[in-house]
Specification:
Shape: globular
Order of helices and strands: HHHHHHHHHHHHHHH
Number of strands: 0
Number of helices: 15
Length: 340
Amino acid sequence: MTRIPSLDGLRASSILLVLIGHFAFAAGFHSELTDIYAHAGVRIFFVISGYLITTLMLREIERNGTLSIKDFYIRRAWRILPAAYAYLAVITWIEHEQFSWTDIGLSWGYLASFAPLFGRPPWDLSHLWSLSVEEQFYFVWPLVVALGLIRTKQMAWAAVLAAPLIQHAHHVSHGLDMLVSLEVMDSIAAGCLLAAYAPKLIPFVSNRRWLGFAWPLALVVPVFLPEGSLPQWLSPWPQLLSHSVWTIFNFLAAIGILWAITAKPRILNHWLPVWIGTMSYSLYLWQMPFMNPEAPISLWLRIPLSFACAALSYYAIERPVLALRGWTRKRKATQAATAT
């Protein structure tokens, strides 16, 4: 699948939400709302990821009649590991005295979502929980997709419906920190459902530009998340409804993604958001040390330095690695054709 510029524009919006949320810590205007919108940015990434990856798998099944799970894992390794391990190598080397062996092991093993079980993770490793969640999901998901479209839809719907209940269980029992991977899986699952239903939805969405309002609505929805003012005497229903707000957000984001793909709005296809979106993975990795409130860095340099390191990571690691992946794939295809 070639890059879809509209989705790069959406990735830019997502990473900017994360940047603003983390910058709030450094600048001293951190609040519950900035946390919520930073989390919303991560969830948009999840929905986009679920859509793209499931679309690729479904197309492979349609083309070949089967899904190569081995090749899927190899592709994910090429895409995810080099940039992430480059970041971890640098940050571990610089800050190893501040990290415990547990912190290092969980981060390098893509198990950072379990870090709260062992105490508060270090700031510069804390954002890796989302990478951990995503890779845990994709360790299992191709096994589900390989079973067929019906089972794919069933499992994705089950994840969407279960997530608010799991979020509520975590809320009422703070000892269940290991559930974080399960309570955000509905965002990835919403993207997976979008991929499964896209062939039927695209004709409906393509002629209705007003569906672009899904994005403003999605960004309003998280305002209703704070639970402190909910009437406790109706517990647990208000809390369950509050947790279901993320379900609404996920589906509005899914509609917005399909609208962006079909409508191709100029603002998402301008070179600047597209460029930011293409670097969004490296930017997500490298912005964290510069947003650390304890880092002795001028407030005005934090964002430029984040972009500088992200650009270095993208152009020196991500692009060359993906080019190498493409070369090895072509070489393997050539060898297979020659052998036959």
